[in-house]
Amino acid sequence: xxxxxxxxxxxxxxxxxxxxxxxxxxxxxxxxxxxxxxxxxxxxxxxxxxxxxxxxxxxxxxxxxxxxxxxxxxxxxxxxxxxxxxxxxxxxxxxxxxxxxxxxxxxxxxxxxxxxxxxxxxxxxxxxxxx
Length: 131
Prior knowledge:
elongated
């Protein structure tokens, strides 16, 4: 596509502006919190870059929208971390319950129940030996 003004300004056919190819975002059927974080950060980056090229009187509003995407990413990371902590807490609580009532570990003898810190230390030491 050539513009009639190209001749006036001495632009060749290779210097003409071509419309960029449209891009498509593929959203998974079952997005995870990591997918949401990734999309929010990409959108934040695009909005922040676009805001740099906009008239200053509209730039503040565009940056507010960009920050909202950053907030979405922050919330999804926070939610993912809370879920991981809850899952680990459930695993530890289950492990503590099994240790306290398991006859083969001596958990049924008076005074033989281990504290939570002792059990966490055992888990930590066990993980060191597995690596």
